[in-house]
Amino acid sequence: MNPATTRWTLGILAALVIAILLFLWSRGDQKQPPAKGEVAKQPAPKPEPSLAPTTPKADGPATVLVFFDYNRSAVRPGEDSKLDELAARIAGRASDGLDAVGHADRIGADNYNLGLSKRRADAVRAYLAGKGVEAGRIRTGAKGEAEAMTGETCRNMGPESRENQKLIDCLQRDRRVEVKIVTK
Known about the structure:
The protein has helices at 3-27, 80-90, 110-130, 165-170, and strands spanning 63-67, 96-102, 138-142, 176-183. By secondary structure, the chain is of the alpha+beta class.
């Protein structure tokens, strides 16, 4: 092989390697879809500082649970009535604030679920703001999959994947936002 051909070949190979590296590097910033098949268990995230304690009111419970569909952050039909009732209940009470903490089930990567639970809490905040509750009165937080309501109930139900409908149905209670009334 003559030297000119060798240089051209090495130059093309170097350009190809650089293009592949740039492509892979740019994809690192994109959200990753939930993993298929078995999900490796990650260490639990560090606990966040707890939110202010709540005091129940005499006119109803201090906590409202709003449930979400699998891998979704939109308030689902049927759950909006809970938020409507809550908005009406705290209307005109300048001293009451709300803590909205999002949760996710265990299917998918920890980071993805943490972001999903944050989007769920933000959706509840936006919904309540649309009903006249000042958004500044609503603190949001995200727990991801750290505080599952289902506990051991849904263990041994097959692979933790979006194709396992039986597991998705079982984990429904984990896909939620807990809204607590905080008295000041």
